[in-house]
Fold:
Amino acid sequence: MNTVPRGGSSRRGRRPCRPSILYLVVLVTACGGAATATPASSPTATGSDPAGSPAPKPPRWPGTAVLAVIKLAGADGEIAKAGKDFMTAANSNDLRLMWGAADGLIPVVQDLVSSVDPLERFNKTAELAGYLRKAYPLLIEGATLLRDSITAGDATGVEEGSRKLAEGLNAYAPARAILSDLVTEALLQQRILNL
Structure:
């Protein structure tokens, strides 16, 4: 019999940032990322170089940076889907789809904003944080203006919200490329932290 602990959430509910390694690698790769896994038979994967001496261990990341990168990678697919939905809606003049994509994107990005702080404090992820600091406010502002303008029937607001949202998606593109490069290492770091 499954019961919920007194805190109101199950143990599983408190650990939303522990998706499987395979799932995230597939997710990032399918979303256009360049993440690659190290083959199990490579010298790096076995912990030694071809000469037989042990390979140096990668420097440890702060746990908060590891969790932030994994969380951001998990949400990357939602942002990519919203971008595709906006393009489809714009091409077909489907305001209902546009409204839904904007409304769905807002809470996703708002939830990610707090994950940028740990990235700024770690050199390896600071560049990613810089791109996200620019992109996230534009995404939130553009999606909010677009959704609210569609609701109000404000054509000028729809146009401005669409422009700002497109600007945010363009600002997010370099962050996405960096994120896809970092996610495999973040997953390795998560394994190191859990040992």
Observations:
- The two ends are 30 Å apart (CA to CA).
